[in-house]
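Format notes (please read before filing issues)

Several people have asked whether sequences and structure tokens are stored in separate files. They are not. Every record keeps both together, in the order shown below: the sequence lines, then the token lines. Line labels are part of the format and must not be stripped during preprocessing.
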Amino acid sequence: MASPMNGTLRRRAWLLVLAVALAALVAYQGASAFAGAAALDPRDKVEAAVLEKVGATGEATFWVVMHEEANLAPAFGLLDWTARGTFVYERLNEVAERSQAGLRALLDAHGVSYQPFWIVNAVRVTAGEPLLLEIAARDDVKRILATRVYQIPVPQPGVQEDRVNGIEWGVDRIRAPLVWTTFNVRGENTVVANIDTGVQYNHPALVNQYRGNLGGGNFNHNYNWHDPSKICGNPSLVPCDNNSHGTHTMGTMVGDDGGANQIGVAPRAKWIAAKGCESGNCSDSALLSSGQWVVAPTDLNGQNPRPDLRPHAVNNSWGFFGGNNQFYLATVNAWVASGIFPAFAAGNEGSGCRTLRSPGDYVASYTAGSFDINNNISSFSSRGPSVFGPNEIKPNLAGPGSNVRSSVPVNNYANFSGTSMATPHMAATVALIWSRAPALIGNIAATRQLLDDGAVDVANSQCGGTTDDNNVWGEGKLDAFAAVSGAGPKPSWHP
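Then the structure lines:
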């Protein structure tokens, strides 16, 4: 558990860094500040990989990042959930539509293929070298970047560990059942999402918690399912999971079949899902589309966005190995501005230091490492420190991640190991906190503080830090009961 002074300082530091990040929303790939565009060679704004690709093949697909950035700071003063989400959505759209107008007109005139985005002010373009350089020469263009593929960390197969009266060891270890019985909350009135490989929506442990379940065998997948790459069909009308990973992480958040399979931390929360990962790989365009959908879910045709239907927390396991990749920073900041809790896996590239993935290394992300049933840090759990922010400790804490049993297609269960398995324990704990204390919904800073203060300290000096906050364990082991207890008056008894 962090000391109050340490927690207060860390909270202030986090808020300061976030404010700076929102004021200058997107910085990409270590690019220096842009000035005097007309005086520079247009190639200076183009990432080398794009120039290499277009030189070798005559054409490339690339990202055009615009200079103008939306100011989302006023969102933090809005208490109403719908008003806050609507403000963020409308502000991002307004800036993108206005600032991209000239570029889009140019692209239309050339008859080239492009896809505009608003979660980050950028356009995905396929073009040859002459148009590439013409775009780079524009004063409203900040940077041109190569496309990238992110990965879901490959989970390691596990073996069945002991369960506690049908409750999985990780759920029990973070004391979630004690939350259920003490405070009579199991995630009611909250919605969690994952950006993952999809979900088997009718899995026995998940079907009752699916927000699209209307009862009586009827379902409405509008606003509850997003598949930008059309992997589950074209059009993609029904959730699927062609990998098992997404069904597994969702099960750890909310899974419960009403019988022996009590696999979820918040079994009465509702869930929705975006298939940002086509398989084990995740295209950057699918991830951005999923990030937009989380801010403002749409119908199955991608139309009629509803920011009021956004989730309260979003679980992410994917990442860019090597860290220090800021391409998704604008998305995470937009989630935070709209009150969505951003949960990320640290990565499975441990046990060395500085092995975090992005976006897990962002200051604005809340990131989970992994420990095992014997309370040892998992050997694969990625370590900090983060390259972002002065002395930024990462991960933020560690959750149960070794030999975690959860749901997989079709109607089955399996044990996996990875920080992907730890992160949903943490994301679902947020649902428990907000279920008990609805006044905290959207208050990311206060919720992070509860998680920090509730964590059980574990000393480790391997990668720097202190006893109560280090780059192996973060603040320590996740304790859902302590975190939820801190969200309101303590019970008359308190273990």
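For reference, the curators noted about this record: The chain has twelve helices and 22 strands. Residues 2-9, 11-39 have pLDDT under 50 and may be disordered.
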